[in-house]
Design a protein that fits this description.
The chain is built from no helices and 7 strands. By secondary structure, the chain is an all-beta fold.
């Protein structure tokens, strides 16, 4: 297994509930083939006393995507600005 960290802008299609269903990256369209998991701090989790400011919530998702040619990977994406999705991690 390898993990690649990146900050590439990608196209993500979301459904009416805001959940990702497809993504276009590196010339390939990936269909979401599992249940996406929301990325961000867990509600109610205690923060370390060393943290002086609360972290901003990460508006993102982790999901498995499969391309039409069968390439399957796990992707972490985050909404960096309204309508702008950033790919932050690829796990294959």
């Amino acid at each position: 297994m390898s993990i690649t960290h990146t900050t590439e802008i990608v196209t993500v299609w979301i459904d009416e509930d805001g959940i990702p269903r497809r993504m276009f990256w590196a010339g390939h369209r990936y269909r979401v083939t599992d249940t996406p998991t929301r990325l961000g701090p867990e509600p109610g989790m205690p923060l370390s006393p060393a943290i002086t400011h609360p972290p901003s919530p990460l508006k993102g998702w982790r999901f498995q995507g499969t391309s039409d040619d069968g390439d399957t990977r796990v992707f972490d994406v985050r909404l960096s600005a309204p309508g702008i999705w950033e790919l932050i991690r690829v796990i294959d």
